[in-house]
Design goal:
This protein is α+β, with helices and mostly antiparallel strands and about 450 residues long. Among the domains are: about 120-195, 2-Layer Sandwich (Dna Ligase, domain 1), CATH 3.30.1490; about 265-330, Nucleotidyltransferase, domain 5. The protein has helices at about 1-20, 85-100, 135-145, 195-205, 215-225, 230-235, 265-275, 280-290, 315, 320-345, 370-375, 400-410, 435-444, and strands at about 25-30, 35-40, 60-70, 75, 80, 105-110, 120-125, 155-165, 170, 180-195, 210-215, 235-240, 245-250, 255-260, 305, 320, 355-360, 380-385.
Length: about 450
């Protein structure tokens, strides 16, 4: 735990140093594509004036000066499966983005989906030594949170204080400087498989880059696709990617739950490939141009020509109706949405005051998906595009770039996390012997 805490602090400091130097890259390592954006920071002092993640968060602070995307290789279900292939793909995207920006980048902030995320809600309370809340008191109350035994081989990726309460006044976002007797906090902690983080960190190192930050792509997609009111009142963001669908729930501008479903757009492509007996590249093209989620009477008459690459003219020149294609795609899309609904139900999403659901990611572009989703998820559903940021090329403004744009906002305006505060050494939130001995002395 202490090693992770220290490494996150080191990455946070590295990010600050990179932003002060003026250039940092963000990398979205996905199953279907790897996107890289190069950001230039100017006027970093203005960043601190932004409160939270507003509609124009970070707009004053940075602009995108380079962007590139390449087909992902060696990544399955959002996790690295073949190190050398992924390294080659990352290098390709990074070199193209550096060439466009005409500048060399040393520091990169990466995000990834998958790695079986699990959410925990923690609570802690301390008595104040003086009547005014200081930075030290916040450190103490965060370290007072009882960390659950989340198992071997898992690491904490995010640990954010979501809410503070001073005496009986709850709902404070920043209690520093306020008067009171007792301070309590609620913290959201997200853990992921340690192996997935280590593989990604190792892969980035092999590309001669310094890793200056890590984030879950379901978190950053939510930052960029949800508007300010949705983040405040409560909404879920469903990031439909190639290998997995990321789910995040926000309220009061903080993420309170994250999860992922290991089915995505590539499984739909695989179904088309098997159903029509065509190569995956052809299946992807058919899905992109003609795919849909809801069939109408017109679709029986719309004929699609399938061009193959087998050399057998009769086999390659087949025709199918669009209704048949939708018949192949729809069961898999329904399966993804049913899984998402099960996760939302388990998280208690139906108890939130507002139940808006926003679909984003490349998979959300299938025509008719929003109607089908509102029927299965039973809520108001809309399609979300990422916020506009300065200098972002037109090609990178679609829903498929929600995580990449969210990474820019995450880099410019990070929310307070556990490791931003100096935690007293004797209060490290580890299941340590020292803490057990202290408890024994105090209570026996």
């Amino acid at each position: 735990m202490i090693e992770l805490y220290d490494s996150q602090r080191a990455m946070r400091n590295m990010r600050k140093a990179a932003i002060q130097r003026g250039v940092v890259a963000v990398l979205d390592v996905g199953t279907s594509k790897i996107a890289c954006l190069v950001l230039r920071f100017d006027g970093t002092e203005r960043l601190q004036d932004q409160d939270g993640i507003g509609a124009l968060a970070g707009q004053a602070g940075f602009r995108v000066i380079g962007a590139a995307t390449t087909r992902s290789r060696g990544v399955r279900f959002g996790e690295i499966a073949a190190m050398q292939e992924t390294e080659r793909a990352i290098r390709t995207a990074l070199q193209a983005a550096q060439k466009m920006a005409n500048i060399r980048v040393d520091h990169v902030i990466a995000c990834f989906s998958g790695a079986s995320p699990r959410s925990y809600g923690l609570a802690g309370q301390v008595e104040l030594e003086t009547n005014t809340v200081s930075e030290q008191d916040i450190s103490r109350v965060l370290s007072a949170c009882e960390v659950p035994d989340y198992g071997e081989g898992r690491e904490v990726l995010h640990a954010q204080p979501v809410n503070f309460a001073l005496d009986h006044r709850s709902g404070l976002s920043d209690p520093r400087g306020q008067m009171g007797q007792a301070l309590s906090t609620d913290m959201h902690m997200l853990t992921v498989d340690a192996a997935a983080i280590q593989n990604l960190a190792h892969c980035v190192k092999r590309c001669d880059l310094e890793l200056a930050g890590l984030a879950s792509s379901s978190y950053v997609s939510g930052i960029s696709a949800l508007v300010e009111d949705e983040q405040e009142l409560g909404a879920a963001c469903i990031d439909l990617g190639g290998g997995s669908a990321g789910i995040s729930i926000f309220i009061k501008k903080h993420m309170i739950y994250a999860d992922s479903v290991r089915i995505g757009g590539e499984h739909v492509t695989g179904d088309i490939s098997m159903g029509l007996q065509v190569p995956k590249t052809v299946a992807e093209r058919i899905k992109t141009f003609y795919g849909g989620a809801v069939a109408t009477g017109m679709d029986d008459r719309e004929v699609i020509e399938i061009g193959g690459e087998t050399g057998d003219w009769e086999h390659d020149r087949r025709k199918i109706s669009r209704a048949e294609l939708i018949g192949i795609m729809r069961p898999r899309i329904e399966e993804i949405l049913e899984e998402v609904r099960a996760r939302l139900d388990a998280a208690g999403f139906s108890y939130l005051p507002s139940q808006q659901i926003v679909l984003t990611g490349g998979g959300s572009q299938i025509p008719g998906l929003d109607g089908l989703a509102s029927r299965i998820l039973g809520q108001q559903v809309r399609l979300g595009r990422p916020l506009r940021v300065h200098g972002l090329p037109q090609a990178a403004t679609g829903p498929g770039f929600a995580s990449a744009v969210g990474m820019c906002l995450f880099a410019a305006n990070p929310q307070d996390e556990w490791w931003d505060f100096e935690i007293p050494v004797d209060r490290y939130p580890a299941r340590s012997l020292k803490r057990a001995v202290k408890w024994f002395k105090d209570n026996w």
